[in-house]
Amino acid sequence: MGYHKNEKDVRDVDSAEDNDYDVEVLGSKRGVVTDEVFGAITDNGPNYRSVGWLGTAVLMMKTQMGLGVLSMPAVFDTLGMIPGVLCLIAIAAITTWSDYIVGRWKLAHPDTYDIADVMMRIFGRFGYEVMNVAYTLFWIAVSGSAMLGLSTALNAVSSHGACTAVFVAVAAIIAMGLASIRTLGRISWLAWIGVTSIVVSILVLTVSVGVQDRPSAAPKEGLWEPEIKLFGNPSFTSAISAIGTLVFSYAGTPAFFSIVSEMRDPRHYTRSLVTCQTIITCVYLAIGIVVYYFCGAFVASPALGSAGTLMKKVCYGLAIPGLVSTVCLVTHLPAKQIFVRILRGSDHLTSNSIVHWATWIGCVAACTIIAYIIASAVPVFGGLVSLVGALLGTLMCFQPMGFMWLYLHREDERTTKWYLGVAWSTFVIVAGMFLMVSGTYGSIVDIKDSYAKYGGTAAWTCADNSGSV
C-alpha cells in the first residue's frame, strides 16, 4: 500500500501494514523507487527518502529550538509568569494542531513538497506564487539571523577576538559548506548534535543562575530582589511582541512539509511530531520558569550572559555546535525549495549530473549570499527579523492549516464533530490574522522606536554583539 491520494482515505492510512508500504513505495529491493515529488530515486543519485521517525523528530526540534529559547524569561517578565505560561501552552497547542494537519495533508496529497504546493491546490497559481515568495523570504531572514547568532557566540568565546563582520562572514562560509549537503537524512546527524548542544548549554545556564549569588545584570552591591511578576501590565505593543516571540519559537511549521517529504515512512510523522512538541514545550517551560525565577527582571541580553563572564563563555562555547547546525538547516531549507522547483519533473533532480550539481550549489550559494548581505548591511536587522517573523511566520503557521482542514473535510458528513472542526479551523484562521496584523504593527513600532533611540547599527560593523556583563 502506498500513498493515498483521496482525502477520505487518510483515516485508513495509519492502519496499513508497514511492510506493504516499504516494498511498494520505499523499499526498492527490486530497483527504482518512484516518489511523487522527487521522481525516480536510484543508487545513481541522492536518496531523498532516507529520514527515520527519530531523525524527523530531531530535525523538527532543530528548526524551532535555538538560543531563542532564552527569550522565554523576557516574555514571562513582560506578560507575567502566569499569563506567560498560559500563552506559551496555547501557542504550543495551536501550532501542534497545525503541524498535525501538515502530516494529514501529506498523506492525502503525496505530490505536496512545500506549503506553496498546498496553496496551489486551494487557491491556484496566485496563492502558489505568494507562498513561494513568503517561504523563501522567511527562511533567508532566519538564515541571516542564525549567522548573527553564530557570530555572537564566536565573539563571546573569543572576547571579541575579531571584527564582528569577520565572524558573520565565517558563519556564512560554514552555512554554505554544510547546507550544501543534499539530503535531510544526512543533515539529521548534525541536528542531533545541535539539539544536544543547545539543551546542554541552556541547562548549564539554568544551573549557574540557580547557584550564583546574583545575576550579572543585578546591582553589584546591597540587597536585591528578582522582581518576579505573576501578572504583568504591558502595553499593547509590548504584549503582542512578547506573544510574537512565542509564535516565532514554534514557527518551524512551514519546514515540516519538506521534512515529511524526505521521511522513509510518512505515516510515522505524527509520532515524530508528538516527540518534538513535547520536548520543545517542556524545555521552553522549564528554562523560562527557572531562569525567570532566579533572575527576574535582571536577565542579561543576550541571556547567556546572565551567569557572568566566565559562564557566558562556557555556555556560548557549548552552544556553538547547535548554532552551526541551525545555520546549516535554515540555509538548506530555502535552497532546497528553490532547487526542487527548478528541477522538478526532470531526471536531473535525483541524478548526479552536472546540471544537478550546478543548480544545487547555485541555489545554496544564492541563499547564503543574500542572507549574509541583509544580515550585515541592514541597520535594523534584528527588528527586520521580528517583522518577517510576525508577518510571514504567523502567515505560514496558522491560516493555511485552517484552510487545509476545511479542504480535506469539505465532503465529510455534517456531524457535530464536523461542525466543531469547522469552528476550530475558523478560529485558527482568525487568530492567525489577528496575530499577523497586530504582530506586524508591533514590530514596526519597535523598529521605529529602536531606530529613534539607537540609530540602528552600521553596515558590516565591527562592534561586539555578545553583550557585556
UniProtKB/TrEMBL annotation:
User: Which keywords annotate this record?
Assistant: Membrane, Transmembrane, Transmembrane helix
Q: Which InterPro entries match?
A: AA_transpt_TM
Write down the membrane topology.
Multi-pass membrane protein
| Gene3D superfamilies noted in UniProt | Amino acid/polyamine transporter I
Pinpoint the Amino acid transporter transmembrane domain residues: 52-444
Give the matching Pfam families: Aa_trans
Cellular component terms, GO, for this chain's entry?
membrane
Q: What is its main location?
A: membrane
MF terms in GO = L-amino acid transmembrane transporter activity
Q: Where are the membrane-spanning stretches?
A: 74-97, 130-151, 157-178, 190-211, 239-260, 272-294, 314-333, 354-375, 381-406, 418-441
Q: Does the keyword Disulfide bond apply?
A: no
UniProt record similarity statement: Belongs to the amino acid/polyamine transporter 2 family.
PANTHER family registered for this protein in UniProt:
AMINO ACID TRANSPORTER (PTHR22950), AMINO ACID TRANSPORTER (EUROFUNG) (PTHR22950:SF683)
Q: What is the protein's name according to its record?
A: Amino acid transporter transmembrane domain-containing protein
